[in-house]
């Protein structure tokens, strides 16, 4: 039997199951890669203290990574919520030591339910220690803006300029996601030479919690399965668009995308690439 590629997500645990580690592992499973995890923090609001972020110790982070490397080994790494400078510095060291070709960095900063997922003093470490080693980084519009010192990003032309400028930080590919644009959902990919745009229809729903995590997890899985970065982005965008289309909520709160929908509801979305 041929064995599936081994993929680890280093991210926060989203207790509600829509985002973070949970979204990543569900997506990995759907796309036939072997999923593993390093939990950097637990995101879960305590009903009395109101605390929402419960960071894990560096020891716990190192232990999880070492266990995955030893028991299984790694083919690709994805990072999500890292939360603090301390964790970023530590994780950057772990990643450097692992000598892996595929590193997908989702520079997670703020959750849909308004949790602060990255501390302010962590941004420099993110930019200098992690982003330069990435195969691809996947900022949304607010994250791209923050990484570019607060620049306004509103239109597709701004996404393109942001991708070009973020490429200067050293990643091989930059994908700036236009989830917050008006009109179709257009994302921009830049590899240092060529700009490509990916367009999907805008789906009228509020249930998009974890969409960004799901998208970058799918990119990671497709690259691990041998796709080129461009084909991985195209396929992952189709996957996440279907997951958004079949999103739902069990409560009055914003609900999850449905990670199983691309399998159970079949039709892939056509993504226009230009
Ligand atoms: O969707 C961003 C995100 C990432 N990671 C974790 C989260 C969230 C959003 O809530 O909880 C752990």
In summary, what is this structure?
With 274 residues, this protein is α/β, with parallel strands linked by helices.
Could you characterize what this model shows?
InterPro entries: HMP/HMP-P_kinase_dom (IPR004399), PM/HMP-P_kinase-1 (IPR013749), Ribokinase-like (IPR029056). This protein is α/β, with parallel strands linked by helices. It has a single domain, classed as Ribokinase (UDP-N-acetylmuramoyl-L-alanine:D-glutamate ligase, 3-Layer(aba) Sandwich). The chain is 37% helix and 19% strand. It has nine helices and ten strands. The protein has a ten-stranded mixed β-sheet with strand order 3-2-1-4-5-6-7-8-9-10, sandwiched between helices. The N and C termini lie far apart (38 Å). The mean pLDDT is 95. 3-hydroxy-5-(hydroxymethyl)-2-methylisonicotinaldehyde (PXL) binds next to β1 and α7.
Write the layout of secondary structure elements.
Blueprint lengths: L5 E9 L5 H11 L3 E10 L9 E3 L2 H14 L4 E4 L5 H14 L3 E4 L17 H8 L5 E2 L3 H7 L8 H12 L5 E5 L7 E6 L4 E6 L10 H14 L4 H17 L15 H4 L7 E2 L1
Parallel strand pairs: 1-2, 1-4, 4-5, 5-6, 6-7
Antiparallel strand pairs: 2-3, 7-8, 8-9, 9-10
Helix pairs in contact: 1-7, 2-3, 3-4, 5-6, 7-8
Bound molecules: 3-hydroxy-5-(hydroxymethyl)-2-methylisonicotinaldehyde (PXL).
The site of 3-hydroxy-5-(hydroxymethyl)-2-methylisonicotinaldehyde has 17 residues, from β1 and α7.
Organism: Virgibacillus salinus
Keywords: ATP-binding, Kinase, Nucleotide-binding, Thiamine biosynthesis, Transferase
EC number: 2.7.1.49, 2.7.4.7
Query: What general form does the structure show?
Result: globular
Number of domains: 1
User: What gyration radius follows from the Cα positions, in whole Å?
Assistant: 17 Å
Order of helices and strands: EHEEHEHEHEHHEEEHHHE
- The appropriate CATH architecture is 3-Layer(aba) Sandwich
Average residue pLDDT: 95
What hetero molecules are bound to the protein chains? 3-hydroxy-5-(hydroxymethyl)-2-methylisonicotinaldehyde
Q: Largest sheet, order of strands side by side?
A: 3-2-1-4-5-6-7-8-9-10
Family: Belongs to the ThiD family.
Domain Pyridoxamine kinase/Phosphomethylpyrimidine kinase: 16-257
Catalytic activity: 4-amino-2-methyl-5-(phosphooxymethyl)pyrimidine + ATP = 4-amino-2-methyl-5-(diphosphooxymethyl)pyrimidine + ADP; 4-amino-5-hydroxymethyl-2-methylpyrimidine + ATP = 4-amino-2-methyl-5-(phosphooxymethyl)pyrimidine + ADP + H(+)
Protein name: Hydroxymethylpyrimidine/phosphomethylpyrimidine kinase
């Amino acid at each position: 039997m041929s064995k599936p590629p081994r993929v680890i997500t280093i991210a926060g645990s989203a207790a509600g199951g829509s985002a973070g580690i949970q979204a990543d592992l569900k997506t990995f499973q759907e796309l036939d890669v072997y999923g593993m995890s390093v939990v950097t923090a637990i995101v879960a609001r305590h009903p009395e203290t109101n605390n929402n972020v419960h960071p894990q110790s560096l020891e716990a982070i190192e232990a999880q990574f070492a266990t995955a490397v030893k028991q299984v080994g790694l083919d690709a790494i994805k990072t999500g919520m890292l939360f603090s400078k301390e964790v970023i510095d530590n994780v950057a060291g772990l990643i450097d030591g692992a000598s892996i070709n595929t590193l997908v960095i989702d520079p997670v900063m703020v959750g849909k339910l308004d949790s602060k997922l990255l501390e302010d003093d962590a941004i420099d470490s993110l930019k200098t220690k992690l982003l330069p080693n990435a195969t691809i980084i996947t900022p949304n519009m607010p994250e791209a803006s923050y990484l570019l010192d607060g620049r306004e990003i509103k239109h597709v032309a701004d996404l393109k300029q942001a991708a070009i400028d973020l490429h200067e930080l050293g990643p091989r590919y930059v994908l700036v996601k236009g989830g917050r644009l008006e009109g179709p959902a257009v994302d921009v990919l830049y590899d240092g030479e060529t700009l490509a745009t990916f367009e999907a229809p805008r789906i009228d729903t509020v249930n998009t919690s974890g969409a960004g995590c799901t998208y970058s997890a799918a990119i990671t899985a497709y690259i691990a399965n041998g796709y080129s970065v461009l084909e991985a982005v195209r396929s992952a965008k189709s996957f996440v668009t279907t997951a958004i289309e079949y999103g739902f909520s069990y409560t009055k709160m914003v609900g999850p995308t449905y990670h199983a929908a691309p399998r159970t509801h079949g039709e892939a979305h056509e993504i226009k690439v230009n």
